[in-house]
């Protein structure tokens, strides 16, 4: 299997984008630490990470609700009992 130039440019571009994003995040954290001290920087970081977790959890609940809706539709269509299972990797 041969990987073309488009693949490698995508990999290199993604790596550069990740590096730039990491530098920006570290600069923001460092500036918050320098201006407000360690405690406020840690609190700000915790709030941001909790926000990201809340968004991810909302998406998961939406997936569970969608599986339950599919199960209800299958149960009504077939008349058989249905149990929906959500697998996470």
Characterise the protein shown here.
It is built from 2 helices and no strands. The protein has 89 residues and is mainly alpha-helical. It folds into 2 domains: 36 residues; 52 residues. α1 packs across α2. The longest helix is centred in the middle third of the chain and has 41 residues. The relative contact order is 0.05.
The tally of beta strands, per DSSP, is 0
| Number of self-contained structural domains | 2
Q: What order do the SSEs take from the amino end to the carboxyl end, as H and E?
A: HH
What's the number of helices? 2
- Category from helices, strands and their pairing: mainly alpha
Q: Helicity, in percent?
A: over 70%
Shape: flat
Cα end-to-end separation? 27 Å
The major pleated sheet works out as: none
| Average pLDDT for all residues | 88
Oligomer: single chain
Low-confidence stretches: none
